[in-house]
Every structure is written in C-alpha cells, then in structure tokens.
Specification:
Number of helices: 21
Strand order of the largest sheet: 6-4-3-7-8
Number of strands: 8
CATH class of the largest domain: Mainly Alpha
Largest sheet: 5 strands, parallel
CATH architecture of the largest domain: Up-down Bundle
CATH superfamily of the largest domain: Amino acid/polyamine transporter I
CATH topology of the largest domain: Amino acid/polyamine transporter I
Distance between the termini: 24 Å
Structural class: alpha/beta
Shape: elongated
C-alpha cells in the first residue's frame, strides 16, 4: 500500500499480499440497468444494419438472432450461478487453462474497444451531429477524463437512463403497434442457405453485452437470483423491442436498404409519433449508447488490472492514481477506440470488428464450462451449452473468413496481448518477487497490553498517514480504556477485486505501529484494499462490534463528490444507530 509521498516515513519494505474487501452492493434492478446499458443498446443499430443487408426479409434473420440470443442467455444464467465471484471468461476459465483464459480475455478486450467506438459513434448519428466520427473521438476523450476520478454511481445513473429509454421505446411501440401488426411487409428470404447465413452473421449484434453480466456476479447481493432476474428482464426487453419495432420498420413502404442504417429508431419515432419526437429518441438512445461506451471502458480497465494482478500482463498496469484508478489501463482504454475511429468511421464495419471478439470470448466461456467436470450441471444444461458453443463457433469462423478487417483486428489484439504476457513471464523467471502474506482481516492477532480484552472498542479509518488524526484517536482510546482498530482502506476502483492482491509497501504500517506502541494501549492495524470504502468501513465496524468510528475530514472537489459520492454519507447510512461516527477536522 502506498501512502502520500509527503509522509514522514519510511523505509521500503517490499511487497505484501492483502486480503481484499469485496462488498456485494448490486441488487437485480441496478444489475439489469447496467446490463441494459450494454446488451440493450443492440436495438439501436441491429434493425438498421439488418435492413441494409436483407431489406424487407430481414425480420426472419432478426427472429433467428433473437432465438440464438435466448439460448445463450439461458446458458449465462447457469454460468452466473456456477461462478458467484465472477463468471466472465477470464475468471471462469483461469482454473482450467491460464493461456485459454488470457486468450478469452484478450478477445473480450477487443470487443470492449469496438463497443466504445461503435456505441459512441452511433450515439453521434442519433444526435445528428455533423462529423460524427470526430464528435465520437471527443466524447470518448471526455469519458476517459471523467473516469480519472473513478465515478461510482453508474448503477443509479444507468437505472435512470434505462427507464427513460424504455419509456421512449414503449411510446414508439404503442404508437405503431396497430399499423405494424396489420401492414408489415415481410417477404421470404432470397438466395440459398449460405447466402442467408452470411446475412445472419453480418449483423449478429443482439448478443451484445451478455458476457458483461457474468463479470458483475462478484458485486451482486445474491448472484444466482439477481443475475437470473437481470438477464431475463433485459432479455424480455430485447426480444419485445426488436420484434415490435422490427414489424414497425417493415410496415413502412418505400424504404431502401441502407436508409437510416445508423439511426433507424429515430426515424421510426419521427414517422409514427411525430418529427418532434425524434429528439426524445436521439437523447434517450444517445445517452444509453454513451453509457454503454462508459461501461465498456470500465470493464476493459478491470480486465487489464486483474490480468496484471495475476502476472499475465505487465505489473505496471496495477499502478493507481490518487483516486484509486489504474491510470495506465485508463490511458490505454481511452486511446484504443480513438485509434479505431481514426481508421474506421462506418457503423457496419465496426459491427464486424465487434462481433469477432465477443463471439470468440463466449465460445471459450461456454465450451470450457460445458466440459468442466468440477462444476455440477444437469446433462441437458451441458448439451445446451455445447450446442450454443458450436453455433457460435461457425459464426466466428464465418466472420474470420469473410471479414478480413475483423480477423486482422482480433489478431493484432491477441498478438500484442500474448507478446506482453510472454515478456512478463520472462521477467518473472529471471527475477522472482518475494511476497509476505498478511493474515485475513477478520481474525487479526491483537497487540495486547493487558490480560483482558477491553469492552470498549474504537475503529479509526484512515487512507494515508495522518499523525494528528492518529494521535487524536489514540488519546480518545486511552482516555476510555478502549481497544483501537486502525483500518487503512486502499481504494481500488476496478469493480470486483480478487480475493487477495499483492501491493508494494513503504513502511506506513511500521510507522503507525511505532506511534501506537508508544501510546501503551491495545490496538490492531488492519489494511484492506476495497472498491467501496464506506461499505468496507461499516463492514469492519460491524465485524469487530465497535462503539465508535473515527475518521478525518476529507477535502474533495465538487466534481469528485458528484462523480464518486461522499464516503461520510454512505458510511453514516450503513452504520448501526448505536455506533458513533466522529469526524476529526484537524
């Protein structure tokens, strides 16, 4: 753990391994909103791309796509149940094959890069911005800059955006339902099986984002229940919206393939509700698509960080800024989609790049889980997974053969990622890192000064070395004969953390121990990396049954408080009423 470089410490003391706090703070509704911000965005571009490829026969291809989406969604309900601490391709496959897990993670990383480019670019088309590629680059840069502070209210904001978008889509559906059902023109697909398979593969986008739900299980209050409810609710929205809006699109006569390829839903809103409603559609879907880009950005940062923690990528990717954000992954994640947009500014071409990474990661996840004898599944569930994996394999092969730009893009990501991994392995082989394991915080060895345990217990929560705050807490504990827990929380804003994590130390704990030892009181120093600081402090206060929590007043800008919220506010809401919260302002 690294204190402020201005602290009066401290000799370097190596690398230690810390048990992390992994709070479960997401219910199914917020999980569904975050998932909808990724998976649910497919409705914004899947119909326009489908009509561009197949015209008035695209409804059949859309229905087959939704059938495959439903099958895969059912499989991911099982994956989320089997892996409550994280069921993404990297986490679920790592125990079987580290190399295969890394390949799956790199393919998913390619998907996230294109998701940012594709989603934000399409948002600019919906908002009718001139030079959409340029605006998309600017917006991605702004989103990256905002994430320097590690915004933490994505669940609540995603819920608002999702509700507004749902209301917008429902308005279009109710306005068009009568005409759509009666007058939709749906013609038989032309050409043979291989021709229509090519069309189907060309806009296989309704699978968009479903892998994201499995990465959130480590944050869910009840992973099996919450993931099931989130998946089924968003799946219902995806199916109903695509079917009814697809019929509404087919009921409009005179459309030519390629018309409104990037903003079909805005066109439907203007056609069935009125020209004025187009701006409602543009705003709701534009914000939803930008939110999807933000979600992808955070997911890609998390993947890089976790792989660096596991020594599968350079260790420098673990470095944090003062807000707890891995800043090198943030920079990489912001730059990559901008580079993609500098080369490709077409939504259809980006969709091909997008699909090859996503489908590849899903094949690895489904195939590995279906053949894993260490997990318990009913035979028919395994069969469903294997069938899904086989279908996705043929889709992946078709994309790789026909869409050369997608193959080159995925190949470059794999090549760079695997090369970086190999460099790390060589360095570790030549210079192994010695690690000291720290006991889990729930069962600490107390520094005892007396033969009996004090009945009064205080907890001091600190981030960096603050001698005045520490001495204040020691004086308070000494006056009342209390046992003092000194909790150092290192904030790491990357979503679900691993169970244990190695971090450099520079003598901060030794410095605290030296001051506490001189006070002559009972104390225990605890260091915990955490994603939710307020939750972790409240959790430890409840675990040790303390009577008082002491904190220093923090100085944050208005922007930081807006993006990240107040630790004081969240802590006061979580602490039991009989626990005092003391704020030291010195």
């Amino acid at each position: 753990m690294e204190p402020d470089s201005t602290s009066p410490t401290l000799a370097h003391s190596g690398v230690k391994e810390y048990a992390t706090s992994r709070p479960r703070v997401l219910g199914w509704l917020r999980s569904a909103a975050i998932l909808d911000g990724d998976w649910g965005t497919s409705v914004a571009y899947v119909m326009g791309l489908g009509f561009a490829l197949a015209g008035y026969s695209s409804f059949w291809h859309l229905c087959f796509m939704l059938a495959l989406t439903s099958l895969v969604a059912v499989n991911y309900i099982t994956i989320c149940r089997l892996y409550p601490h994280g069921g993404g391709v990297y986490s679920s496959v790592y125990h079987r094959s580290q190399l295969l897990a890394v390949i799956g993670a790199l393919l998913l990383a390619a998907d996230y890069v294109v998701t940012m480019a594709l989603s934000v670019l399409d948002a600019c088309h919906y908002l009718n911005l001139g030079y959409p590629a340029l605006w998309a680059i600017i917006i991605i840069g702004v989103v990256g800059a905002i994430n320097w502070f590690g915004p933490k209210h994505s669940g609540g904001l995603a819920l608002i955006i999702s509700a507004f978008t749902l209301a917008t889509l429902a308005t279009i559906i109710f306005s068009s339902a009568g005409i759509a059902v009666q007058q939709a023109t749906i013609i038989r697909p032309e050409g043979g099986l291989f021709h229509n398979w090519g069309i189907f593969v060309g806009f296989i986008l309704s699978l968009s984002g479903i892998e994201a739900i499995s990465n959130m299980t480590g944050l869910m209050k009840d992973p099996a229940r919450d993931s099931r409810r989130a998946i089924l609710s968003v799946l219902a929205k995806v199916i109903l919206a695509n079917v009814f809006l697809g019929l509404a699109m087919h009921a409009i006569q005179g459309l030519s393939p390629g018309d409104h390829k990037e903003d079909m839903l805005r066109f439907l809103g203007e056609h069935y509700v009125g020209p004025w409603f187009g701006w409602f559609v543009a705003f709701s879907l534009g914000t939803l698509l930008i939110s999807a880009g933000n979600t992808a950005l955070n997911d890609l940062i998390s993947i890089q960080f976790l792989m660096a923690v596991d020594k599968e990528l350079p260790l420098s990717l673990r470095k944090l800024n003062r807000h707890g954000v891995p800043f090198i992954p943030l920079i990489i994640t912001t730059i990559l989609p901008i580079l993609v947009l500098l080369v490709i500014q077409d939504v259809e071409t980006l969709s091909h790049l997008y699909a090859i990474g996503l489908v590849g990661a899903m094949i690895i996840n489904l195939g590995s889980t279906a053949t894993d004898k260490s997990v318990s599944m009913k035979p028919y569930v395994k069969i469903l997974m294997l069938v899904s994996a086989v279908v996705l394999f043929f889709i992946e092969a078709s994309i790789a053969i026909k869409k050369h730009e997608a193959t080159i893009f995925a190949g470059l990501i794999l090549l760079l990622g695997l090369a970086a991994r190999q460099v790390v392995k060589w360095k570790l082989a030549s210079k192994p890192i010695l690690t000291e394991t720290i006991p889990a915080p729930l069962a600490p060895t107390r520094k005892r000064r007396r033969t009996s345990i004090p009945s009064t217990k205080y907890l001091l929560a600190i981030k960096d070395v603050n001698d005045r705050l520490l001495k204040f807490a020691l004086d308070e504990a000494k006056q009342r004969g209390a046992l003092l827990f000194i909790l150092r929380v290192k904030e790491i804003v990357v979503g679900t953390l691993p169970e244990r994590i190695e971090m450099k130390v520079n003598g901060t704990e030794e410095h605290i121990d030296k001051i506490c030892s001189a006070s002559g009181i009972d104390y225990q120093v605890i260091s915990i990396p955490s994603y939710e600081v307020g939750y972790t402090i409240a959790e430890q206060a409840a675990t040790f049954g303390v009577d008082r929590v002491i904190m220093g007043a923090t100085k944050r800008s208005v922007l930081e408080n807006m993006l990240r919220g107040s630790v004081m506010r969240s802590l006061s809401a979580l602490l039991p009423e009989d626990v005092q919260l003391v704020i030291f302002g010195g």
